[in-house]
Write the structure tokens for this entry.
Amino acid sequence: MLAAFAEALRATWQPCTLVLLLPPLAAVVLTRGRWAPLAGTLVGAVVGGWVFAANVVFLSGVRLQLTGVLVAGALGLLAAPTFTSRAVWLRSPLLQGALAAAVAFAAALWWRPCVGRELGVILSTAANGSLGAALPGMTAYMLGAMAPIALVGLALHALKPPQRAMLWIGGTAAVAGLGFSALLVADRHSDIVSTLTRWTL
């Protein structure tokens, strides 16, 4: 499990991992690293990783575009409290945790990894019918992949940037996350994945 965690940490620097990292990072930044959405991000990523390993859901075409719409909506709801005082009710920890979990779950299903040795073993084990044996390794891998996002969240939580700074930070995160979702809605997922894979290799 430690080897899978370490491999995932190394993979966070690879362009092909951007599909997995960008939407959850936007969610965590938009919620200023609050505990509930940060926990939701980790849970959503792990569960999404399990579903990915089990290969029971493969998003493509209209279904993938629909998840792009849903993630854009979730990020919009997470962004609202940063930019308007009328959206205080959207700061509910339960709501923000659920929205962040949904974003991370979707990102895990959008992901097309550049498979390393440890992840290759995990996915092969799952494909050969031993999903239960693959889950601990997949859990460690997804937690490793989310570790940099967790660090960003913890830093925001500890530093508590002022509102003016958060407008810039949150605005950048919102533009990145919503822009990425818009590309998926425009059916550019394959183009994004192939380009990031080419940059990685």
